[in-house]
Amino acid sequence: MKAFDLSGKVALVTGASGGLGQGMALGLAEAGADIVCVSYSNSDDTVNKVRELGREAHSIEADLSQHDRLEDVVKQALEFKGRIDILINNAGIIRRTPAVDHAWKDFADVIDINLETVFYLSQLVGRHMIERGSGKIISVASMLSYQGGINVPGYTASKHGVAGITKALANEWASKGIQINAIAPGYMMTDNTAPIVADQARFDAITERIPAGRWGKAEDMKGPVVFLASEASDYLNGHIICVDGGWMAR
């Protein structure tokens, strides 16, 4: 199991205040990593839970849509322990409106956070990793990296883009000792899916299609993210792992 050990590693996790981001942060901490939590809001709950696991944690509050702040975010993260071994691009937003009525600003805002920030942050942290000759970059894609979805054109476009950036960076940086991959969660119980969960008929229809017979939880992200962040995945590059209970197989 040594290949999965993250002791001595430092992970920067965006959108770490709750949900899937918190789940991944705790999974990495359980495997031995220290965590830098970057969120728009307070990450104290995640920081406290990481520390309860015996790992060190640091919180940075930042609006990641302000791209001129990203360099400062990376600088603060490096000041924590002097290195970033793992970058988890998890922060994201969604806007639900039929395509015919989807506001330009909503589309632009989603692309900004979900796609542009993923690239710029990967670029900034990637420069540090290239200098060191090692690193792991893991972005959160989606089932909508493959499908079209309903009433979420901006989100779908952004998640298709995350899949493309993952492959593009893998092509350029694999030879430099960096592995770039993504996780595509299926239907998860998060704030983003609350409107769907509230629609009983749609919730039941989706659940019926999932071979596992249930929606995912934040804890279901722990194993996949530890695998992608560890030496166990050193020859995995440009891949998107579906954590979906079998949704894509049906």
Characterise the protein shown here:
With 250 residues, the protein is of the alpha/beta class. The protein has one domain: 3-Layer(aba) Sandwich (Rossmann fold). 42% of the residues lie in helices and 15% in strands. The chain is built from 8 helices and 7 strands, in the order E-H-E-H-E-H-E-H-E-H-E-H-H-H-E. Strands 3-2-1-4-5-6-7 form a 7-stranded parallel beta sheet, sandwiched between helices. Helix 2 links the parallel strand 2 and strand 3. Helix 1 crosses helix 8 and helix 4 runs parallel beside helix 5. The mean pLDDT is 96.
Notable features of this structure?
Rossmann fold; about 250 residues; seven-stranded parallel β-sheet; alpha/beta
What's the structural blueprint in terms of helices and strands?
Blueprint (H helix, E strand, L loop, with lengths): L9 E5 L4 H12 L3 E6 L4 H9 L4 E5 L8 H12 L4 E4 L14 H29 L2 E6 L12 H21 L4 E8 L8 H5 L1 H10 L12 H8 L10 E4 L7
Parallel strand pairs: 1-2, 1-4, 2-3, 4-5, 5-6, 6-7
Helix pairs in contact: 1-8, 4-5
Name the overall outline.
globular
Count of helical regions: 8
User: What structural category characterises the helix and strand content?
Assistant: alpha/beta
Question: How many individual β-strands?
Answer: 7
Helix content: 40-55%
Radius of gyration (Å):
17 Å
Order of helices and strands: EHEHEHEHEHEHHHE
Average predicted confidence as pLDDT: 96
The assigned CATH architecture is 3-Layer(aba) Sandwich
Number of domains: 1
Q: What are the low-pLDDT stretches, counting only 5+ consecutive residues below 50?
A: none
> How many strands, which pairing sense, and closed or not: the largest β-sheet?
7 strands, parallel
Strands of the biggest beta sheet: in what spatial order?
3-2-1-4-5-6-7
CA(first)-CA(last) distance: 32 Å
CATH superfamily: NAD(P)-binding Rossmann-like Domain
